[in-house]
Design a protein that fits this description.
This protein has about 350 residues and is of the alpha+beta class. The protein is about 35% helix and about 20% strand. The chain folds into three domains: about 5-60, no CATH class; about 70-100 and about 200-350, ATP-grasp fold, B domain (D-amino Acid Aminotransferase, Chain A, domain 1, 2-Layer Sandwich), CATH 3.30.470.20; about 105-195, no CATH class. The longest helix has 16 residues, at about 5-20.
Length: about 350
Amino acid sequence: MNGRRRFDYLAVAREKARSGGLSLPRQLGEMALLMLRKGIGPRYYHLARFWRPGIPLPEKLAHYSDRQYRRKVAELNPPEYQKISQHKVVEKAMLTLFGLPTPRFLGYFHATRGRTAGGVPLRSAADLESLLAGRIDTQVCFKAVEGFGGGGFAALRVERRGDALALVHPLSGEVRTVAEWFSHLERAPDGWLLEEYLPQHPTLRALNPDSLNTLRMWTIRHGADVHVHGAFLRVGRAGSQVDNTSAGGLACPVDIATGRIAAALDLTLRRNEYQRHPDSGAPLVGVAIPYWQDCVALAGAALSIFPQMTFAGLDIAVAPDGPRVIELNVYPDKQGAAHLGFSHSEFFDAAHR
């Protein structure tokens, strides 16, 4: 831990103590105890907001260290099977094969193996231009096949400008030729998944129209039963096409019984809380997720079709006519529990109750 980080952790602890949280000595003592007994560092202490009064120490000790979480996930999701859902094209094929709704597949761009949904090669700049020529005035989503955290994602509008095609970023207005975009795509050796852009339900679009705001649903299977035990809505920030908390997005816990969201939290150490979206000003607290019960059912169905998978963080988007599976995360970030407000032990034990 470098000196700057130690200063940040201490500064936030002092700030929280002054604003009604646990005293500074109490926080520092708990941080030391969690580090010594569980290998849980001060960053997670702040992300989980353990400085709040009223959280019993045993509950804090019920959270997992990185090593413990990694071991638990490997126990539930055998590593040799995890890659089935971690490769976005293979995952897409599984979901489509079983008839689960996802954004429409357009193609797999790859230098040697690329193909469109119709089986036509998608490997060169000419191949890419041919596909895009049939998508004029629509948006096409490009996802790095081995990407995570929203890295590499772009949704670009296809336009015809004179005799040439252009790809236009809908937020920045940046224009690229097909040749320029091809040069960008070919730098990723694993290739790209191309999908049709998914319009989202007006209720969720109103929160932040620049990003597709999706649900992260912690879902676990026990025997024949699949349950969603926790969920939060990720809402992006103005000017960003992605809603991932690692990219600055907000996390709004969802009440599983009602499908209504609570105040949003950011991913800073201070865990700033928002009753309204800080950019759009849209109210957050109490907003009902459209098609909530359908979202829950879809998350369970998606997990159940992947062999040997017992636990996943399902990313679900809600279109005007219902939910779509965006992707499965068979090794979701363990800090999701910090957003959801329960310990890892509580979550994993729930599957056996």
